Amino acid sequence: MLWKLFVSYWKIGAFTIGGGYVMIPLMEREIVDRHGWLSRDEFLDLMSLSQAMPGIFAVNMATCVGRRLAGWRGVVAAVAGNITMPIVLILLLAMFFRHFRDNVIVDRIFMGLRPAVVALIAAPVFRMAKTAGITWRNCWIPVVAALLIWLFGVSPVWVVLAAIIGGVVYGKLKAETSYENQNENGKRG
Amino acid sequence: MILIKLFFTFLKIGIFTFGGGYSMVALIQNEVVMKNGWMTAREFTDILAVSQMTPGPLGINTATYAGYTAVVNSGLPGWMGVVGSLLASLAVIVLPVVAMLLVLRFLSHHRDNPVVDAIFRVLRLTVVGLIAAAALLLLTTDSFGIPGLNRQFVVSILLFAGVFCFSYFKRTNPIYLILASGLVGLVVYSV
Lengths: 189, 191
Hints:
The complex is a heterodimer of chains A (about 190) and B (about 190).
Chain A: H1 2-14, H2 23-34, H3 40-52, H4 57-100, H5 104-131, H6 140-150, H7 156-188
Helix pairs in contact in A: 1-2, 1-4, 3-4
Chain B: H1 2-15, H2 21-35, H3 41-53, H4 58-73, H5 78-106, H6 114-137, H7 141-144, H8 151-169, H9 174-188
């Protein structure tokens, strides 16, 4: 069981290029369809929890699935399986490029890659803005966050902390107003 | 010592990452380029390029590569770089995994709580700004060349626009876009 979990996650880690979310279909196939370890509903529940929690989505997901199947040993097997291959590959490439960084061909390739990488970071900004439910009333939040980090050199850590505190205040205020509304409605009724 | 500093820096990066790999990229960039000066913005861009075309989660790949580069840049030998990369990638996952286990154990119905819901709504919006800042910070002459009618700048702008459109509208897998841009670079700058 532990071995199967490790192998499944090894595959998920080793064969998906392009970030955690590209892994979802492969994960679903391995865990729900192929091995039947989780039902599709359970899988979706764990997925939304993994997205909400801090850290790397794929690793969070591996933690959930590993724990559900085999406790802490399962967590170790799934997480280790998920990250082993990427770490080994990256290290090999890191050493390779260290050796060839003054090579003319490598340099030309990277001159083409750099603007592409910036575009690949810019595109999810607009995609995520849509899923985050951006409106004219709340668009100041991402704008202020971006300006603080970009122009004023504020660490994203402080911005995330401020967002959490802001969320708590906003949630409390909203909970109170809806409670008062309910009371008023109750009196009227 | 850089290894210890690296470990604690990546612990912090791990627990403050909300909303996926790109948001972790923003945090790593701030720590390794701006705050600690372990590498240049250009080196970091190159790391991102390699991390995006290698299998695995973007956050893990970037942490591994940045950990290696930070240690080797400080003048330590390559095997210490390997230690640094392992420390960075372990540090980045350990706190989130513990948090995940605690939540799975104690909380199961937190989703209906209006305060928790509000926190995540604000966080989702904030993360958009975080990633936007990371992209803006990468708009450097190092990556695009000197603005003007010269070959590198024009090619860079065209590549940027093309990759952006494919990624945004067609959701093309980054690996293809990276391979294609590398090929364009090789051909254009060789003639």
